[in-house]
Amino acid sequence: MNIPALEIRNLEKTYPGGLQALKGIDLTVKEGEFVALLGPNGAGKSTTISILCSLVQKTAGKVSVCGYDIDTDFPTAKQQLGIVPQEFNFNSFEKVQDILVTQAGYYGVPAHIARDRADHYMKKLGLWEKRTTVARMLSGGMKRRLMIARALVHEPRILVLDEPTAGVDIELRRSMWQFLKEKNAEGTTIILTTHYLEEAEALCKRVAIIDKGELVADMQTRDLLKRLQVETFVLDVQGDLPKDFALPDYEAKVIDEHTLEVTLDKQKQHTANDLFVALSAQGIVVQSLRNKANRLEELFVRLLEQGRAA
Amino acid sequence: MTPAQKYIAFQTIVVREIRRFMRIWVQTLVPPVITMSLYFVIFGKLIGSRIGDMGGYSYMEFVVPGLIMMSVITNSYSNVVSSFYGAKFANNIEELLVSPTPNWIILAGFVIGGVARGLAVGLLVTLVSLFFTRLQIYSIPVTVLVVFLTAVLFSIGGLINAIYANSFDDISIVPTFVLTPLTYLGGVFYSIELLPEFWAKVSQANPVLYVVNTFRYGVLGHSDIHVGYAIGMILVAVLVGGAFALHQLTYSPRLRN
Lengths: 310, 257
Known about the structure:
By secondary structure, chain A is α/β, with parallel strands linked by helices. Among the domains of chain A are: 1-80 and 156-163 and 187-226, 3-Layer(aba) Sandwich (Rossmann fold), CATH 3.40.50; 229-309, 2-Layer Sandwich (Alpha-Beta Plaits), CATH 3.30.70. Chain A has helices at residues 45-52, 74-79, 96-106, 111-124, 140-152, 170-185, 197-203, 221-226, 272-281, 295-309; strands at residues 6-14, 20-29, 34-38, 60-65, 68-69, 81-84, 158-162, 189-193, 206-211, 214-220, 230-237, 251-256, 259-265, 286-291. In chain A, helix 3 (96-106) crosses helix 4 and helix 3 runs parallel beside helix 5. Chain B has one domain. Chain B has eleven helices and two strands; from the N terminus they run H-H-H-E-E-H-H-H-H-H-H-H-H. Chain B has helices at residues 3-23, 25-28, 30-51, 59-89, 94-97, 103-129, 140-164, 170-184, 197-203, 207-220, 227-251; strands at residues 53-54, 57-58. Chain B has a two-stranded antiparallel ribbon. In chain B, strand 1 (53-54) and strand 2 (57-58) form a beta hairpin. In chain B, helix 3 packs across helix 6 (103-129) and helix 4 (59-89) packs parallel to helix 7 (140-164). Chain B is globular and about 60 Å long.
């Protein structure tokens, strides 16, 4: 039987002030998975991660990392984990390479191996030219990459990233995605919290959604997206829209003379094909189309609304 | 972690601590040497020459061991308090807390870092003192033991202070209002034989008195209190302080929620 990379059972956390941040979370992550942990601010994502790395002490429940129970063998459990926290928390007065080698040392990695690994990740993450620069002189994007390199220097089996691309430009975000995909393909289990749902959809095969300390969804991203009943598309048309055009079966809105917004509802048996036929019959040629919002985002908002209404 | 991995983690903390105070040597190593040189000139040479003997030695001979010890105490303490609190303030203490490094290794690493600075400054001050007096070590084992234990004790104190501190003000309160008075009243500049009986007895509650006198014994062969008793007291303080610091490292809500 395969041991899960992460197993969380009935995890609860109540802070001294009485705030119940986690109300009995159950989550199992298999080895090699790439899982997104989503949720609005204050949902309990960061608390969950902080419990994994011992910065927050749980109130109740069981957590095991690669089969090592954090109550009985926390040091071995920690050895399996690489944590990339939300806030920059390296010593900004130290050089990039020193930060990496020192961090490896805390995990018992001998200095010559630590230096080789630090070199590898600095090259891989575009930090090589800055290896002797003190960390405070790095740009925001480089600091983010340094945090990822630092989490990897002891070669953990699980990489946990808390909002790794917050404030990072699109180009850099894409290169970080590529890097994370490669790490996952090499066998590293990755757990990612993010506010960019596009990121979760692009990277993660599985999505778990936390809201108000409870798990409200946990399934394959593909299956989750199937639950999306309504999808809105923005269509760019060739030439001007005819003044008398009509789409009575659809919820449609004219944005300008070249742009149309149409909502397809699966419950009404709408298909994109039928929509194109209806538009074509009125002499409208669609040049291009795109989703109005990220699909996961629509579903995410819907799920949270459903959960809160229940 | 295997014992070899624990040793690497310990070594990493110690090297990082030494690198830190060496990088800012102008702030960490030079000022205590200048301050102590002024003490040697003013108290030892100028005023001391008018004071005459103290405990059977010239005032300069008497005051030098106390001043060396004073620099060891303040520097081992301030190294750990500023390094640990700085790491806590910038959140980079989390680098250590999330790692599998056991808390006792974290404690030992920071303490040895503090000891290294205390000894480095102590050595520099000792070298400067040679310009003012001839130092003949009466007992090398006692001198080495007491200077090491003292640096350990005050490094532990610095760590406890750093864990409790919520602001940079908090890390200067203890050195200013506790450590400095205890050091000045701990027999650095005078023999407690000069005090009335009541104040001499009160002075015995001052831990600095034990370390200064034991060190002075190691150097001069003279002490106001029994050396075995004093070493015992320092050892007890190290063990109690170390246990408390370890408990705080493990359970303090100031480090972990």
